[in-house]
Amino acid sequence: PIDYNKVKLVSAKHPKPPGVKFTYGTAGFRMKAELLDSVTFRVGILASLRSKKLDSKTIGVMITASHNPEEDNGVKLVDPYGEMLEQSWEEHATKLANAESDDDLVNVIQDIIVNTGLDGSKDSSVVYARDTRPSGPALVAAVEDALKVLGAKALDFGVKTTPELHYVTRCLNTAGTKDAYGEPTEEGYFKKLGDAFRELVEQKPHLSALTVDAANGVGAPKVRQLSEVVGKFIDLRVVNDDIYTKGKLNFQCGADFVKTQQRAPPGMNLVSGMRACSLDGDADRIVYYYADEDGKFRLLDGDKIAGLAASFIIDLVRTAGIGDIKIGVVQTAYANGSSTAYLTNVLKVPVSCVPTGVKHLHHEAEKYDVGVYFEANGHGTVLFSSHAINSIRSAKGGTPEQVTAINQLSALTNLINQTVGDAISDMLFVESILMNKQITLRQWDEAYTDLPNRLVKVVVADRHIFKTTDAERKLVEPKGLQDKINAIVAPYTEGRSFVRPSGTEDVVRVYAEAATRQDCDELAFKIAGLVF
Ligand code: 16G
Ligand code: ZN
């Protein structure tokens, strides 16, 4: 049973900053690190409660603020199979974080116990990891205090990428079952990826070196470790790998910088013929890019990866002769209009659009046998249903081509991190496709041409008055605003624009795309003016 007096005593060492309102949002709790001590302590408590609720299964806790500035940090929970925390528990997290006093905290814990019908006397087990942020160790200590006071089994997974933590959580909970996902260690993770990658590319000629911008974050040491496993097949050159100098994390580098600025990180010296990609600060996003003959920067973002991945898998399934496998792609409103047209008209694959945030994409992708989901920002993965996996594993194949395609599909199910988008796994996935097709980044890029697009942040008095519908593509509130947007967009050729409140920052985001750069910028400017 839970010793509430002890909880209060330890909680007193992790006081809530008065007046601050916390929300468990799309990416868990995220803000200036100095405000997070009480929050991480309480998330530790919630992790233990969640484990008790789920028959003592291991729950994951990740301490990271992804692509945010170094002084930020964040914390989120991972459910037993590596998914995001079940949505109904986000509310419990928010209530716990906002309990003003230690007594209130105990009341909220007791409410959660009653509300969810969990048995407080059950054992609990929690695995946790952090990225390279300097504020990480102290926040880990706060989680550990919580686990100690609740008597939870605590597993410190150390400095890891977010996707590694998702991976290990699933491994721990499936060990010894028919759904075993892999060895619950970092070595197991790299071995699983490395073996699958080798299977896919062993016979293929090598490509030129790939420059990997690691955002001066946890991706840097991890890509180096990966290199030890796959170095025979792929030449990885890590840049922006300084995880020790203060202030460097995500600063003028990384996937978010490259995607939003639409340029290479300064200092990379991207020249024609180079192949490059950028990870974000916790290595769950990746974008590719190159310079064309004129030295012009060309981005291959999450939409381009989705197109490449879908076309490769469609071909494999067709060649393998495995019928009855429904392939679909899931995007958000930020997907470039050209990418949606390419998927729909050229690949002829069904496309669904869902609200921003991994949990929405992930759930929608689960509706297909093979669900490819990517956000334009580079976060994404591919999910294989158990029907798909069984079909692939039991397929025999009559011709050598069929056998190869079946083996490749089977390898893909191991190469792709199916718990969450994973920059390292996605990078190997993309590389394996490019090696199989023997194509350059430029040739990949030729599948379709992106419409010029612009993303603008608008600071408003209260972003909560903005309410959206239709996968965030339309505003329902403030009343009348959507009609005005429609009227402005109407005259633009291939014009599209939408407005949504950010889930991670106190701003409203305006997206616009149109046939020309000038039209697109003008459109973005006009719509931003409406919102302001
Ligand atoms: C979070 C989401 C990411 C989304 C971004 C949008 C997860 C794990 N992460 O980082 O998928 O693209 O928020 O941010 O769900 P915004 O709401 O500020 O535009
Ligand atoms: Zn991230």
Explain what the structure shows.
The protein has 4 domains: 156 residues, 3-Layer(aba) Sandwich (Alpha-D-Glucose-1,6-Bisphosphate, Chain A, domain 3); 112 residues, 3-Layer(aba) Sandwich (Alpha-D-Glucose-1,6-Bisphosphate, Chain A, domain 3), CATH 3.40.120.10; 144 residues, Alpha-D-Glucose-1,6-Bisphosphate, Chain A, domain 3; 79 residues, 2-Layer Sandwich (TATA-Binding Protein). By secondary structure, the chain is of the alpha/beta class. The mean pLDDT is 97. It has 18 helices and 19 strands. The radius of gyration is 23 Å and the shape is globular. 49% of the residues are buried. Helix 2 crosses helix 3, helix 7 runs antiparallel to helix 14 and helix 10 runs parallel beside helix 11. The longest helix has 19 residues. The structure holds 2-acetamido-2-deoxy-6-O-phosphono-alpha-D-glucopyranose and zinc ion. 2-acetamido-2-deoxy-6-O-phosphono-alpha-D-glucopyranose binds next to loops.
